[in-house]
Amino acid sequence: MSELERYYRILELEPGATLEEVNQAYKDLVFVWHPDRIPLDNLRLQQKAQDKLKAINEARDKLRSFKAKYQVSQTSSSSQPKKSSERQQPPKKSSDLSGKDYSRANLSNKDLSGRNLSYSNLNGANLSDTFMHKVNLRGADLSDANLFRANLLLADLREANLRNANLIGADLSGADLRGADFTGARIRSGDRLLVKLIGANLAGAIMPDGTIHA
Questions:
Q1: In this model, does residue 89 exceed pLDDT 70?
Q2: 133: how many CB neighbours lie within 10 A of its CB?
Q3: Does 112 lie in the same domain as 39?
Q4: Domain limits at 18?
Q5: 103 and 8 in one domain?
Q6: Mean pLDDT of 104-117
Q7: What pLDDT score was predicted for residue 74?
Q8: pTM (2 decimals)?
Q9: Do residues 103 and 166 share a domain?
């Protein structure tokens, strides 16, 4: 079995599955294997869940990278020469979106990984199931935003405004949350914490109940 086939198998897909199928399989498996769904006293299953998530994240990243390279290769090979006056440069996807206004925008299921959204306005935005690995959201306004099952692994959320945001199912593992404001944010169902915060830095963050994390 090739390495590429192995990544498909990890996501429980047949080789050649589309990027959309890869993304959906990733979301389904993250939901199934989220450590917060497993009793904390079951150390064996907790470890298994963390290992599964690591493998799932790697598989998705590798397949995304492969498909992006394949798409570029196909586009290059199929394009026909044009006169210089007819040539158009494809629109570049800017990674610097700092200070932009996305209030109330529907960004569900988008891939914003690695983007600079520092100090942007995402008030009330729908960011459910959005992939934001290593995104820069420092000082961003995410108040009232819907971050249901959003992937914010290693994100920079220093001084971010997350007041009254829905964070149920979100993955904030390794995120920098220093000074972030979580006042009124939804992170629990009853007494059960439903946000993944493994390795997150919460120093000075204002927690949902108004207390400041030491």
A1: no
A2: 18
A3: no
A4: 3-73
A5: no
A6: 92
A7: 59
A8: 0.58
A9: yes
Q: Does residue 66 share a domain with residue 103?
A: no
* DSSP, residue by residue, the chain: --HHHHHHHHTT--TT--HHHHHHHHHHHHHHH-GGGS-TT-HHHHHHHHHHHHHHHHHHHHHHHHHHHHHHHHHHHHPPP--TTT--PPPP--SB-TT-B-TT-B-TT-B-TT-B-TT-B-TT-B-TT-B-TT-B-TT-B-TT-B-TT-B-TT-B-TT-B-TT-B-TT-B-TT-B-TT-B-TT-B-EETTEE-SB-TT-B-TTPBPTTSPBP-
Burial class of residue 176, CB neighbours in 10 A (0-12, 13-18, 19+)? buried
Please check whether residues 25 and 104 belong to one and the same domain. Answer: no
193 residue type, one letter: L
DSSP code string of 147-167: -TT-B-TT-B-TT-B-TT-B-
The per-residue pLDDT of the chain, averaged, comes to 85
| CATH number, domain containing residue 176 | 2.160.20.80
Considering the domain architecture, whether residues 110 and 203 belong to the same structural domain is answered as: yes
Per-residue confidence band for 70, with pLDDT thresholds at 50, 70 and 90: low
CA distance 197 to 212: 16
**For residue 24, is pLDDT > 60?**
yes
144 & 52 share domain: no
pLDDT digits (tens, 9 = 90+) for 190-201: 888 899 999 999
Mark whether 147 and 212 lie in a shared domain.
yes
